[in-house]
Amino acid sequence: MSKLLHSPLHAVHEALGASFTPFGAWNMPLKYGSELGEHRAVRNTCGMFDLSHMGEVKVTGPDAAAFLDYALVSKLSAIAVGKAKYSMMVNEQGGVIDDLITYRLGEQEFLVVPNAGNTEAVVAALQERAEGFEVELVDESRDTALIAVQGPKAEAVIEALVDPEDAATVQELKYYAATWLVVAGHRVLLARTGYTGEDGFELYIPCAEAEDLWKAISEIGQEFELVPCGLAARDSLRLEAGMPLYGNELNEDLTPADAGLGVLVAKNKDGDFVGKQALLGAEEPKRQLVGLSSSQRRAARQGAQLYAGEQLVGEVTSGQPSPTLGHPIALAYVDRDYTAEGTELEADVRGKRLPFVVQTLPFYRREQ
């Protein structure tokens, strides 16, 4: 087995006493103390995550917009400069290679952010699909660090780290938008995005400057009850927010429509795009992604089979007790006839059938 990669912030995490876990090719912080405490900090005050394992691919050139329209399922050419879009890359059969965010930094400049475990596959696919387009692709993943600040007090934390004349820029930055800004003395790409269901920001910065920025955020964050958070809290937060995780809810055997994300496919795009024939000509999925909740205490974990009476009708893809809601929740693929809200199912948990009910997603929605 090859040696796991380290984040540029690895020494900082070690000094904070983090427990580590393999995540794709990376050795990343799982938690620093109580994962429950970290989860609650993001919901109530503020948490900070190291996401430097994520990929960053710069796409530039006269054909950049048209190329991304071809390479991804959405119409990226419609994004205004300074905005971002959540989309997917699929194969010719419509199977999901990755779900990713793309930022438009200029008329001919985009930043594509794939998931950590899929970065190599995305870069390879982009390079292959670039033939015939006047574009330049630069994989900046190993040179770029990414820090996320998430929670109700996230805006106040970032505002405290910028010059007074830039405070309004932070306050007025919309969801799924990004801007270049000096934060704690460092020029960063500041994006109002995240994976927790809370308000928050993601800060892209060169690896060499990441430690100084992390420490500056930590220091000022003490005033706002900010705590460092690991992947365990990130997973429970995204599950409450009903957000899919690649490898659990998404893979190359599933299409965007299977995951309830067919809306990402731009049906009115000019010209061809990879997977177009498979996606636009597909029948309605036999199984669909739904939310499940239960009033009993035991959670149904990934792989638990779901029954309606004695009929096997689905399988859990992610599940655990919800720290915020106080009862088990899960995401699952379920036969189409059993996806209506309120449908009662049973999960097989170690040989015992436990009751669950289909619930509209997300499980948790923050107060605006």
TrEMBL record:
Gene Ontology molecular function: aminomethyltransferase activity; methyltransferase activity; transaminase activity
Residue span(s) of domain GCVT N-terminal: 9-269
Enzyme Commission code(s) on record: 2.1.2.10
Any Gene Ontology biological process: methylation
Keywords in alphabetical order: Aminotransferase, Methyltransferase, Transferase
CC terms in the record's Gene Ontology section: cytosol; glycine cleavage complex
Record carries keyword Transferase: yes
Role played: The glycine cleavage system catalyzes the degradation of glycine.
Protein name: Aminomethyltransferase
Organism of this sequence: Corynebacterium pseudopelargi
